[in-house]
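Inputs:
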Amino acid sequence: MSEANPKQAAPSGAPPAEEQDRVEAQARRAVAAGQGPLARLGEYRHLGLVIALVLLAVVGLVTRPENFATTSNLVTILALASTIGVITVGMTFVIIGGGIDLSVGAIMALASVWATTLATQSYGPWVMVMCALLVGTGAGLINGFLIAYGRMVPFIATLAMLVAARGLAQRMSDRRTQLVQPDNNLLVELSTGRILGVPPLVFVFLAVVVVGWVVLNRTTFGRRTYAVGGNPEAARLAGINVRRHTVILYALSGLCCGIAAVLIMARTTTGSSTHGDLYELDAIAAVIIGGTLLTGGRGTIIGSILGLLIFTLITNLFILNGLNTSDQLIAKGLIIVVAVLLQRRSLETRT
Amino acid sequence: MSELLVMRGIVKQFPGVRALDGVDLEVRAGEVHCLLGQNGAGKSTLIKILAGAHLPDEGTISLAGEEIRPAGPTDAIRLGISTIYQELDLVDGLSVAENIFLGHEKASLGFTRRGETNAAARDLLARLGHGEIRPTTEVGRLSPAGKQVVSMARALSHDARLIVMDEPSAALAHDEVANLFRIIRELTAQGVAVVYISHRLEEIREIGDRVTVLKDGRTAAVGLPARDTPTSTIVSLMTGRNVEYVFPPRPDRAEPGPEVLRVENLSVPGVFANVSFSVRAGEIVGLAGLVGSGRSEIIEAVYGARKASGRVLLDGRPVGAGTDRAVRLGMGLAPEERKAQALLLDESVARNITLAGLGRYSRFGWLDRRRELADARAQIEALDIRPGDPRRPIKTLSGGNQQKAVLARWLIDGGSSSSGAPLRLLLLDEPTRGVDVGARAELYAVIRRLADQGIGVLLVSSEVPEVLGLADRVLVIREGEVVHEAQAGELDEHRVLDLVMAAHPATQEKEDAGE
């Protein structure tokens, strides 16, 4: 299908009327060609991820017909995905904005420890939640200020936070696992309770995804995030306060870690400095598989969540089939490589 | 002396532009041959052909009597042609010696022979009269002049017979230029030919042997004596370019509008100093000057994108640091590098247009996308951006239409929202770079129309005819200072070129002393 040649369409003086009509008709035809139902499906950019997810489900149904499609297994998958899922939403923002956050797992651990100290717990479950959110946001703000105003490379600033936050968590907890007290069982209800047969923490995850999607796609903040990540200089010269925006992005990621800390406390009934080990890698991998560019400026929340579900499903399949966790890691590594190679190819054919 | 390099009838066509249209150049061994011409005359294209970065479409090149066709940088270097670009291509983290032999390291089985490398580097540096630069020093620690010496040593390390220097004095402090000239004289005494590009006529008089002038991709004069040719002859060879510019007429205004912008003693140390001027509503003020004269930096400082001392007032209100404040007060900027500084290339035309004014579509942060799209459409229609599809990726548009989209960004109506201050002052840095001739006329008309609506315009352009044709008033900038101010009608191209290319202070002093 012939595209309208931009050179012809360029206004070199005033082109004759028929020439203009011809070019416009050409452009219309090009647009019309892309509107058939099949073409639309082909253009749906997460098609590959959805297919991969379906394939994995089929593998599950075939290998473990009696276990895979049970409610309890599906609930397990979703509950597992929720904690990292919340972190992945924050990570998607940071990466689209041109940065990276290596400290997410450590911040989550710190928030869980801080919220489960006996002193905090004495104020009840709501204060524990507030504490986790504040600690997460605070650590994110520190990241943001170091990067935006201290002009540190995001990789280094958040690496420092990773190490330091985990150290602080160890110090506060004396390297012991802190139990959620029976008085604060309301928190654990998030995991043990059932709404429509599903633990409430899954709804927390869904809410974060929905809010994240809306903010990214329907607000000025989201639009500016793409601009800041895609071309920071252009964003700055268009009057966007890039530094302030960057601080907010990392604070947002920190807040997500705080929410994730609440979820993990509910699931495990503990706060521990070992929570969330290597979560940063899983979150980054999910974002990359989802088609977000590490260089910033492009990406979607939906893609990241699909990427995460693929990862979680693989874990689940390996466990159900009693396979080695080492092989599971190898499979995940391969998935990352294949996903990125496929995306590169589809990008190249599109342009 | 015999001709070392002979280029005949070189033609190079780029999409939409015939950059070179039959250029001849003859360079003798042991001479300094100066290449002169205005921006867009074809100098850079010509030296890129010599350096092997472009292949000519037509024409022949011969070096020492043999016909050559450099098909890549390595090819050119192997033939003995080295090019020192304006922006030095050194690796800051490597040592002086490692930089000199980068790409042709002295090594056995992949292991570098450091002693030999350093010794060879020391020889080359001594040959250039710079034995004090240690081969083991990290290049990042050297001054610009030191880096220039290293670049030259690298050229020599390839046994260059011909060295092309693109504005080598631009990055140098005044006293360093004399040293550069000394090195060039030593090189030529050893039989090396130098092609020297500079806008500073006085430099050319001091160091050059012969001059070739380019205009509109053609050779206007070959081999003029550098010392004796009158300045007026050279300037008239460079001026009167045949490009057809169509400028909109200036309106007859009985009384000038109120002052929109006032700049007082604006300074950025080392770039420009004590710049003061004002722009009135409805007035287009042009800044004329060479690349590196400080004109773009002045615009950036006015916009709050660069730290500066002094005062900038918009409608009497001080503009501090930070582009967000400048935009809030009613400034807009179309920056010099459209792709790197203005556009989100992967995004649609509409999103590029609304980028700076997103606030006006948001209620508690929520975007009213329908209104956004409608406004983008209105701008596309008003400025006749083609193709007129707001959802099209902006990278598929021509340069002229991309530039219109950048202008459109600042023209969306204020509306009722908080951040939607109406535009008061538009800053344009090279608004027609990469825009073809037909689209230029349209852009000029748009800019004049905006001024007629009462917007103040501050314009920077390397093309003197553009500044003279479009602006009402012109400030001539040289070496970070305003050296002249006049109504555009009172100036001509000749006079402006004289002013911007006037003597380099250092060489001027020396000349005075010598005479």
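Confidence is low (pLDDT under 50) at residues 414-418, 504-515 of chain B. Flag for discussion at group meeting.
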